[in-house]
């Protein structure tokens, strides 16, 4: 089960990123984190940018509403998404968009 915290008009949660994957996708849950595969390599913030774009696209929100709070140099990252509910994030595991 995803560990989600609603906070100040948004949701904070953890993602586990697999860079250099075959395709960009949201792959379910991994130890309380949202598992995400990205084709971008973990170089020059390309994977972080791709992560923000993927989440914004699937949630149908502006890119500025998605922020990496911690873990910019790690596969495990804490993310804040403003303007969505925890239920929208849970639905990403099953059938995006919300």
Task: Give the tags.
37% strand; 23% helix; Conserved Hypothetical Protein Mth637, Chain: A; alpha+beta; 98 residues; six-stranded mixed β-sheet
Structure overview:
- Helix content is 23%, strand content 37%.
- It is an alpha+beta fold and 98 residues long.
- Strands 1, 2, 3, 4, 5 and 6 form a six-stranded mixed β-sheet that branches.
- β5 and β6 form a beta hairpin.
- The mean pLDDT is 92.
Q: With helices defined by DSSP (H or I, 4 residues minimum), what is the helix count? A: 2
> What is the CATH class?
Alpha Beta
CATH topology term:
Conserved Hypothetical Protein Mth637, Chain: A
Q: Can you tell me the number of structural domains?
A: 1
Amount of beta strand: 35-45%
Oligomerization: single chain
The CATH architecture would be 2-Layer Sandwich
What is the first-to-last residue Cα distance? 18 Å
Rg computed from alpha carbons, rounded to a whole number of angstroms: 12 Å
User: What does the average pLDDT come to?
Assistant: 92
The residue ranges in which pLDDT falls below 50 over 5 or more consecutive positions are none
Outline: globular
The SS-based structural class is alpha+beta
The number of distinct β-strands equals 6
Q: State the fourth-level CATH superfamily.
A: YggU-like
Main sheet: strands, sense, barrel? 6 strands, mixed
């Amino acid at each position: 089960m995803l560990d989600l915290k609603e906070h100040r008009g948004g949701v904070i949660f953890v993602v586990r990123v697999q860079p250099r994957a075959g395709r960009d996708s949201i792959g379910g849950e991994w130890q309380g984190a949202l598992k995400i595969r990205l084709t971008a390599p973990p170089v020059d913030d390309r994977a972080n940018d791709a992560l923000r774009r993927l989440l914004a696209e699937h949630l149908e929100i502006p890119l500025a509403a998605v922020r990496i709070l911690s873990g910019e140099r790690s596969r495990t990252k804490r993310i804040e998404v403003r303007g969505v509910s925890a239920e929208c994030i849970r639905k990403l595991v099953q059938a995006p968009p919300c």
